[in-house]
Design brief:
transmembrane, mainly alpha, Growth Hormone, Chain: A, disordered N terminus, membrane, globular, single chain, MFS
Length: about 400
Amino acid sequence: MTDSTIQLGSIKKKNIGIATLLAFAMIPMSGFATDIYLPSLPGMTAALGISSSQAQLTLSLFLISYGVSQLFVGGLLDSYGRYRISLAAILVFFISCITIANTHNIYVIYAMRIIHGITIAAMVVAKRAFFVDLFSGEKLKHYLSLFTIIWSTGPIVAPFIGGYLEVSFGWESNFYFLAAIAGVLFLGEVIFSGETLQHAVPFHLGNITSIYTSMLRTGSFVLGILMLGLGYSMIMVYNMSGPFIIEHHFNLSPVVTGYCSLLLGLAWMVGGFTGKALINRPFTRKMNTNVVLQLLFATLLLLTLQRLNTLPVILFFAFLIHVGAGFTYNNYFTYCLAKFPKNAGIAGGLTGGLCYVIVSFLSYLITYVLPAKDGGNLGVSYLLLILASIAVMYRVNVLNKKNASH
């Protein structure tokens, strides 16, 4: 029944190269959807007459819907194909961006941001599965390890562009820009891409539930997702706090916010490249070293701020901490996605979904308890997340030793 609804493996061989580039181009869309309007958060609060927490909620709603959607979209993609679902998602995302840019109703924006999360989830999970469908072995491992590096182009480029868009045209222009990207991707997909699913899995809720249950009973897989959530929460806590610290506490412009986010986006990319370069080194040793260094940098940040409370100090230590976060994410993302190759859509959806659910709750909770008023609160936020990472890493080490003994 499922086989008759999709044309399995319909992508043309001559288009695989361009389709692969389009797939890589879609990976950073989640970062673009969150980061491009970071410099506009203070401006949005003024233009819409809302509080900073209401503006931050637009990020949290996106993260929650993006995360929860990934929990379910993987099963649909494994049953009904990647192509048509992702194509429809791009079109709906385009329409929702135009809607946000033409409303000043915060509740409409909330609704559209939830739709953003759902559509971006379909797009990104479909493209993760795209690589597992077409590649295998070392080539697949190579591509999977590139994911976090490619994804990091969003946090690097998006706020840099967003800062200039905010100053020149206002916060609405960020969403027109996102719509333009979606339009280009839609046309590229229509012309060059196609279906990559070779063997459709009939959509039986019971079977899919049993697959989810099996994955969630794999302790190392769940702990890997938790580490992903803790690592990315360090980035998101800065994303939600940084614009207010820079524009309110230090009285600087949104363009400066964009440059700062660009710098810290580069940190994430450096962490990803480092993770890829050290991919064959002993896993436990390199991850333990990484988290100890993060603890040292967070402690030094808090101590230095007692005597020298400046933006360069915050950025210097945040850069080092974000390198560590990128390193963590690269290693654990590759690990989690390669663990269940026969159910790539579900594994990718579960990994990304649970990660973003963890990130949405952790980042909003931390910024609510420790408001974005200065670098001190940001430093304490980093420290809490790093201490939690150490606790999880300890459990990972215990579990690995148990598995090795068996």
